[in-house]
Amino acid sequence: xxxxxxxSFAKSVLCEVLQPGSICVDATVGNGYDTVFLSDQAxxxxxVFGFDIQEEAVKQTEQRLNEECQPENxxxxxxxxxxxxxxVPAEFHGRVNVVMFNLGFLPGSDKTIITxxxxxxxxxxxxxxxxxxxxILCIAIYAGHPGGDEEDIAVREYCNAxxxxxFRVIQSExxxxxxYPIRMLFVTxx
Length: 190
Ligand SMILES: C[S@@+](CC[C@H](N)C(=O)[O-])C[C@H]1O[C@@H](n2cnc3c(N)ncnc32)[C@H](O)[C@@H]1O
Description:
It is built from six helices and seven strands.
């Protein structure tokens, strides 16, 4: 069932463009679930680049990828995603099929280590540069935690202002979820 969880829904959308050989970026690897998904979809001929500022997240992701026997198509950087243009090799710029952001804090970890709007916007800008035509940038946004509302507004304002002739932006939201909403933005590069 794809629609009981907004991330599963997002992955079903991304499967429209993912195929063996795809080039992917997981901008916030966290516990590694999204990285495993991307590695699996990209297969042994594809590449996945992951980022996280927490060493614990990088180790956890690498362990999960190894345990789940994913193809060795991945490189995880212990670095902020704002370094994306520098760290994703130039040969892949303009060839990236999917970039995923899962904002906020790492579940089960220190809730004060969060993504922040300034670096998130820098990384979103870099993502739009390295995406291939037809590629999708997918951003899961969580409001409600300290810093979350500001980031939610900043990211949506940024995407709202993208040139319609160059990008198309679709927003999905689980509107009957109690408490704070989870929003998903899909930005397609034309
Ligand atoms: C919601 S979690 C990601 C969940 C993950 N995608 C998964 O499948 O488990 C957000 C992650 O973003 C990381 N983060 C915060 N600031 C970052 C930055 N500037 N660059 C990269 N990662 C960052 C946090 O350390 C945290 O692990």
